[in-house]
Amino acid sequence: MKECYLKFINNEKIVLTDDEKKSMVNKFITIDENIECVHKEEELLTFIECLLTNKPEGVIVEAGCYKGGGSAKISLLSEAINKKMYVFDSFEGLPEHNENHEKNIYGKDVTFVKGEYSSAYDQTVSNVKKYGSEKICTFVKGWFKDTFGDFHEPLAGAYIDVDLVESVRECVTKFYPLLSKGGVLCCHDGHLPLVIELLDSNDFWENQVGCSKPFIEGLGTEKLIKIIKE
Questions:
Q1: Which of 211, 222, 205, 217 is nearest to 169 (CA)?
Q2: What are the sequence ranges of the domains in the chain?
Q3: Which region holds residue 10: left if phi is over 0, alpha if psi is between -120 and 50, else beta?
Q4: Which fold is adopted by the domain 3-228?
Q5: For residue range 135-175, what is the model confidence (pLDDT) as tens digits?
């Protein structure tokens, strides 16, 4: 068993019994083995552990789900703490864009093409149904600009993996103001210079999000960045 899972099981701050933690980890390992995931195991656990230790009020959202590996894991968490979950994705992959990301913080070339990370809606839902808890999920199909407008529920947490800076902008401006006290927003795109530039901008936070720039853990140094709502 990977070290990150052992740490999760041994984390006494998590509001689950040892048997519940072991059961959840075993299900996570099954997901890792059967669904192509773009996250590292410890990245999703960072988000999940925040929700289990801070215990914020509200629902949970995921933006950008690919084949549903992360969705399945988060749905198991949502079921365990009795929260609704919303999954937002175009199910058409990335949209047309003209963003030039050049190199990420690790010095690797970055190119995103239209349609990349596309996964069929039915296949993604099927994966979550088989390996997670599909019954507590609401899947919202479409481009963010068309689907975010009707969503206004208080948030315990938001997990964002959307690649393009304009998509990150849409997600943060929508979800951050909805976060409850102690709620967590994690973004899996923190290795991209355009995303770093956006989230490091006081102007973005003050004039588009409507608040002072919060502390952003890992900004500029980590792929997964984390914000806890004060």
A1: 205
A2: 3-228
A3: alpha
A4: Rossmann fold (3.40.50)
A5: 999 999 999 999 999 899 999 999 999 999 999 999 999 99
